[in-house]
Amino acid sequence: MRFLLLSSFLLFTFTGHAASVWKVTNGDNTVYIGGTLHLLSPDDFPLPDAYAQAYNAATKLVFETDIAGLNSPAFQQDTLKHLTYQDGTRLNDVLSNDTYKALADHLSSRHLSIDNFAHYTPALISVTLSVVELRNLGLTSQGVDEFYYFQAMMDNKQLDWFESPQQQLAFIKSLGDGDDDQIIRYALEDVLQIKDSIGELKDYWRSGNMAGMEQSSMQEFEASFPKVFNTLLTQRNQNWLPMLTGMLSTPETEFVLVGTMHLAGAKSVLSLLEKRGYSVQQLN
To answer: What pLDDT is recorded for position 18?
Structure first.
């Protein structure tokens, strides 16, 4: 899924003078909001100065979810429980013969055997395909969120998050909207485009060009999977809004780090805040 791809890698080719960081104000109260993707290559550091500016100004960091919880053994067990078949069902039971063969051929081209994924659900397969491709392209380092999570731990800054790891697991489980063949076919097409499109997408992130990101990826995603788009982006943006407006009613300064696609388009977090009268300014 394009959402998973865009939330999985960070961009390194700097273009323009802005960045994917915004300052939102309500009178004297301030919240910084930065776009993040969850895998980086070593060459992606240092990050744009706007991230350090927001981090240094903040006393609290707010993430999509509890990063420590994501890395816990308990969450890994929950992932296997909810994203693998527990009743003896196998992947070839839910996919058409043509789709199963296409998936097997793709995995084989990456020196992987489909037999090792026999009990994965299509949702987990789609995530796995993306991660394998990104790592093959050299994106092997921690992302912006983990980078600042560990920095905040060392600096004794406060930490918070919007969703529990279990809630995020439920979102992944919902991928495909019941059409197992479609999600695998789309994922297979998508990963083959990463190598050719990664430079452009990295430019959009690094320069904070949300209009370009929306046009190049999000519009197709919403058209192909409107229900999933609503679940993963639109509804979650709405769910986060009360917490964000609460932050803007207190003098404490927060730095919020969420997937970059949550910051693009008319249904984005930034647009929702602007519509409620808050001042939104992109940092240079």
So the answer is: 56
Report the interhelical angle of 180-207 vs 97-109 (nearest 10°).
40
Segment-wise mean pLDDT, segments of 10 residues, the chain, 284 residues: 35 44 98 85 83 97 94 90 93 96 96 96 90 80 86 97 92 74 87 77 82 84 81 92 98 95 94 98 92
Place of tokens 């995020």: 168
What is the C-alpha to C-alpha distance for residues 115 and 125, in angstroms, rounded to an integer? 12
How is residue 274 written in tokens?
């602007």
Question: In which domain, by residue range, is 74 found?
Answer: 2-282
pLDDT at 215: 86
Number of domains in the chain: 1
Strands of the chain (E only): list them: 21-26, 29-36, 39-40, 60-65, 141-142, 158-163, 254-259, 279-282
Helix, coil or strand: residue 32: strand
Q: Which two tokens stand for residue 59?
A: 């006393």
Q: Which residue has the tokens 């998050």?
A: 161
Grouping H, G, I as helix, E, B as strand and the rest as coil, residue 279 is strand
Structure token digits, residue 45: 């550091």
| Tokens read off for 142 | 């921690």
* Distance from the first to the final alpha carbon of the chain: 31
How far lies 273's CA from each of 251, 262, 270, in Å?
18, 12, 5
For residue 177, give every residue at least 6 positions away whose Cβ sits within 8 Å of its Cβ, in sequence order, or none: 183, 225, 227, 228
Using CA atoms, how far apart are residues 14 and 16, in angstroms rounded to an integer?
A: 7
Nearest to 100, CA basis, from 35, 163, 177, 185: 185
Mapped onto helix, strand or coil, the DSSP state of residue 47 is coil
What pTM does this model have?
Answer: 0.86
Strands (E), 4-105: 21-26, 29-36, 39-40, 60-65
